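Tutorial, part two.
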Amino acid sequence: MYKVAVMGDRDSIYGFAALGLDTFPVTEQAEAAKQLRQIAESEYAVIYITEALAAALETEIDRYRVERLPAIIPIPGVSGNTGMGIRNVKKSVEQAVGSDIIFNGN
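Running the prediction step on this input gives:
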């Protein structure tokens, strides 16, 4: 059975443990990259990652974008929404369709 993980700063992710998700608090980028690789190559199908951390690990995350699993999904942290999630949707649509059919260049 697949699992769900949440990565990010402790304050942003500790509430997800109450929902039964596995939390992985990280503070340093190098530590986070290593942790992401370990999680992605194990039995996790979904990895939620705070937007701030996802921005820092963008090249690492791109390695898994073409894979079926895991789905790596950015979520807002305690600092708020940066708009990264919607940018990723736009990027995925453009990649799948070949043009921006949803946002029309906005």
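The two ends are 40 Å apart (CA to CA). In part three we will examine how such features are distributed along the chain.
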